[in-house]
């Protein structure tokens, strides 16, 4: 039952100023086992294969955003992550040219296929921040963009004649680039992440990690983790969303050892020991992007794509979107008007 302003007591009005904790995902109860000695083959084990076939036909969406100050190689890293020129759609641009500077929030869509699996990948490239004279509230355009995607999905959801498959433009993952200063996080970084972590899954990375020694890298990673903890900034994977002991054990190791990933990005290939590798050439040799002795790019790629991609989508839908949806419906006293539309800028870029 919704309460009107007259129903709210003064003491409760004060308490509403304190943000409520985000709801934890509901963990289903373990089913009570019936007789496991079945009299014959039923075919329950084919469900996984059925799901696989359906996914192979329809494909799936994944939307990744890159955020950070100018000159940290955001576009280059995303290209490296997906081994293609996904951060730029122009067919006239090639590997040898310098990537043009991002001046506005731009969503660029691609369909990537590997092993018969299709993924509709959208890269949301954001302009570098922090180099303006006035950086006050510079996170607002990005936060607004993320919320607009939730609003777009919500309006599709409440339509009477809604689509069978609602286009998903919600940001599933935000890679936040930290400058490799070796000292501490800038106040702007802390403020930025504090705001964004409430609406999206943030994965912090230390950019251009080849500018630091191994000792500096380890020390800086520890300092960043400590600062994020002190300021109450939650990055993905969030502790309260671990569903079981196995998840907790795996994610604790990532939170305590890997985060933030110290990475190097490059979409240029070089010949090393008779094979072609992605890397950065220096007077002292080639820094191999996928070599764990050189940087942690391979760990980031495995984390985002090979082990946690589906979970990133689920946390976006079940936690961040659900939080937005509940607040939006509560503020509106019911369903949002279905006649109002948001500009389809995103669709026009796909």
From TrEMBL:
Signal peptide, first to last residue: none
Predominant place of localization: cytoplasm
Pfam families referenced in this protein's UniProt entry, alphabetically: Septin
Keywords tagged on the record: Cytoplasm, GTP-binding, Nucleotide-binding
GO CC, alphabetical: cytoplasm
Region (Disordered): 1-22
Coiled coil: none
Assigned protein family: Belongs to the TRAFAC class TrmE-Era-EngA-EngB-Septin-like GTPase superfamily. Septin GTPase family.
UniProt name for this protein: Neuronal-specific septin-3
Organism, scientific name: Eublepharis macularius
Lineage: Eukaryota, Metazoa, Chordata, Craniata, Vertebrata
Gene: SEPTIN3
């Amino acid at each position: 039952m919704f309460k009107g302003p007259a129903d709210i007591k003064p003491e409760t009005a004060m308490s509403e100023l304190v943000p409520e904790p985000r709801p934890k995902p509901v963990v289903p109860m373990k089913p009570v086992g019936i007789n496991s000695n079945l009299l014959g083959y039923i075919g329950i084990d084919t469900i996984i294969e059925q799901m696989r076939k359906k996914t192979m036909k329809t494909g799936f969406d994944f939307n990744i955003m890159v955020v950070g100050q100018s000159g940290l190689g955001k576009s280059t890293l995303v290209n490296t992550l997906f081994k293609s020129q996904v951060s730029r759609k122009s067919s006239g641009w090639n590997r040898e040219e310098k990537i043009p500077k991002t001046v506005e929030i731009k969503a660029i869509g691609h369909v990537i296929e590997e092993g018969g699996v299709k993924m509709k990948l959208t890269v949301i490239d954001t302009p570098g921040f922090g180099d303006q004279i006035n950086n006050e509230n510079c996170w607002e355009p990005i936060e607004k963009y993320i919320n607009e995607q939730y609003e777009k999905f919500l309006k599709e959801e409440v339509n009477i004649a809604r689509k069978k498959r609602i286009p998903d433009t919600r940001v599933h993952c935000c890679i936040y680039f930290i400058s490799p200063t070796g000292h501490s996080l800038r106040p702007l970084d802390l403020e930025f992440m504090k705001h964004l972590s409430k609406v999206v899954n943030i994965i912090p990375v230390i950019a251009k990690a080849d500018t630091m020694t191994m000792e500096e890298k380890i020390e800086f990673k520890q300092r960043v983790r400590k600062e994020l903890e002190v300021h109450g900034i939650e990055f993905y994977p969030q502790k309260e969303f671990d569903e079981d002991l196995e998840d907790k054990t795996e994610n604790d190791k990532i939170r305590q050892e890997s985060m933030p990933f110290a990475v190097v990005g490059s979409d240029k290939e070089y010949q090393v020991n008779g094979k072609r590798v992605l890397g950065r050439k220096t007077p002292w040799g080639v820094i191999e992007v996928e070599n764990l002795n050189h940087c942690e790019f391979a760990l980031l790629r495995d984390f985002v794509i090979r082990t946690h991609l589906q979970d990133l989508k689920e946390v976006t839908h079940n936690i961040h979107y659900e939080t937005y949806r509940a607040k939006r419906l509560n503020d509106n006293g019911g369903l949002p008007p279905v006649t109002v539309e948001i500009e389809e800028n995103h669709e026009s870029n796909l």
